[in-house]
Structures are given as structure tokens and as C-alpha cells.
């Protein structure tokens, strides 16, 4: 299940350059580093599907003009 979810994230990332021009976004337009798809992939890999997806969704909800920008890494599992 985790592998299939990671495949969907990678497929979205591979297709993004083709649909960005259709929606009026020329070139790369990510506010954060790593990008949201890279963040989602790493979060799912580290934390599993449920928690990783929730982390990715929170990250996507911060992607708006007043949401900030910059370096925003995935936090590791606390021991």
C-alpha cells in the first residue's frame, strides 16, 4: 500500500511540468524547499501513509500567498 501511494506521488511529480502551463503557472512555482511532492514522499516514507498524508495535507494548506515560504523539512520520528 505504501509503495502504491509513493508511486502516485512520483507520477504526479512527473506529470506536473505538462499541466502547469494549462493552469497558467509558468515554470517552477513552489514556495517551499523541499517541494510539496518531495515533502509528501518523504513524510509517507518516514511516518507511514496516515500520518505522512496528514503532514503533506497540512503542508499543502500552508501553500497560499500569506502562508510563508523557505526551508521546511519533514520532521523525523521522535524516539
Write a structural description.
This protein is mainly alpha-helical and 79 residues long. Helix content is 54%, strand content 5%. The chain contains three helices and two strands, in the order αβααβ. The chain has helices at residues 2-19, 36-47, 49-61; strands at residues 32-33, 70-71. A two-stranded parallel ribbon has the order 1-2. Helix 1 (2-19) runs antiparallel to helix 2 (36-47) and helix 2 packs antiparallel against helix 3. The protein starts with a helix and ends in an 8-residue tail after the last strand. 10% of the residues are buried. The mean pLDDT is 83.
Cα(first) to Cα(last) distance is 25 Å
For the largest beta-sheet, the strand count, sense and barrel status come to: 2 strands, parallel
How big a fraction of the residues is strand? 5-15%
Cα radius of gyration in angstroms: 13 Å
Could you estimate the helical fraction of the residues in percent?
Answer: 40-55%
Poorly predicted ranges (pLDDT <50, ≥5 residues)? none
Strand-pairing-aware structural class = mainly alpha
Number of helices: 3
What strand order characterises the main sheet? 1-2
Q: What is the arithmetic mean of pLDDT?
A: 83
The ordered H/E elements are HEHHE
Shape: flat
Amino acid at each position: 500500500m505504501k509503495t502504491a501511494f509513493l508511486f502516485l506521488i512520483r507520477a504526479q511529480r512527473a506529470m506536473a511540468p505538462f499541466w502547469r502551463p494549462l493552469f497558467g503557472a509558468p515554470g517552477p512555482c513552489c514556495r517551499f524547499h523541499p517541494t510539496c511532492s518531495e515533502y509528501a514522499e518523504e513524510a509517507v516514507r518516514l511516518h507511514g501513509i496516515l500520518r505522512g498524508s496528514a503532514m503533506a495535507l497540512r503542508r499543502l494548506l500552508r501553500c497560499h500567498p500569506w502562508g510563508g515560504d523557505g526551508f521546511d523539512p519533514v520532521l523525523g520520528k521522535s524516539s
